[in-house]
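Late entry, written up from scratch paper. The run itself happened at the end of the previous shift, but nothing got recorded in the book at the time, so transcribing now.
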Amino acid sequence: LIRKLYNNNEVKKLFSYCVWIIVSKDYKANELLQFLLKGCGLSESTKGKDISEDDQKSKVQKFLEKKKYLIVLDDIWEPEVWAEVECLFPDNNKGSAVLITSRNDGVANYIGSKSYYPPLLDEDESWKLFCKKVFKGGECPSVLESIGRLMTEKCR
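Output as recorded:
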């Protein structure tokens, strides 16, 4: 759902800067910071220089302060991640947005935001998604269909 929103051209027109960052379980603050620097076009200005992490954060903040931005932080596992990176995203009163996805209710509770729980896929939707991902959009070989359907049933 968030991916559809993020990839929508009408939505992208509303923002001068958009970035999707996969955070994941193996989150490293410095990697996220480097990704933002690169996405902001600031990594060249810091390349090969001994610039402190605080100065790097400041560069990102100053860049975003002037922009109406949309940033997706995908798959945050722990509330502490948001605590570490929240300061990077200034509330600049320009209509900017930071969207967060997480499988952990504690993240949304920590942030103080409302959670959205997408509905489960029905049997047919699950099967179509399974075939699309496993068989690259093609048909499932008949010899694998019974085990494939059993797998999709277990995943629902």
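The two ends are 17 Å apart (CA to CA).
(Scratch paper discarded after transcription.)
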